[in-house]
Amino acid sequence: MTTIHANGLSIEGRTQDGIRVLTVRGEIDDDVCPQLSTALHVEPGTQPPRIIADLSGVTFMDSTGINALITAYHAVNSAGGWLRIAAPSPPVERILHLVGLDALIDCHPSLEQALTA
User: Could you tell me how far CA 14 lies from the centroid of its own chain?
Assistant: First the structure.
């Protein structure tokens, strides 16, 4: 398990059944977006990546967080894998819907559902 802490953001990463699960807590803004991008980074030449971003503990996300998720989605997709969002908090779910990101990246109401989809 890996943990990243930065300016009120916490990202805990673990692997479950070959899926990288990132549990994100706090606010995602310009100050901490590089840490989120690092956590979502896909190493070239690895197995098709499968990543779930559990956003249940995220209270705020601005456009830099949206851009980090879009960039990660394209990288993962290009490598033959997938990215899913699990349990976005109500304010984050609203943002995802307003910008249409929920139409690009599969969003699931719970981590369990994201793991088994």
Answer: 13
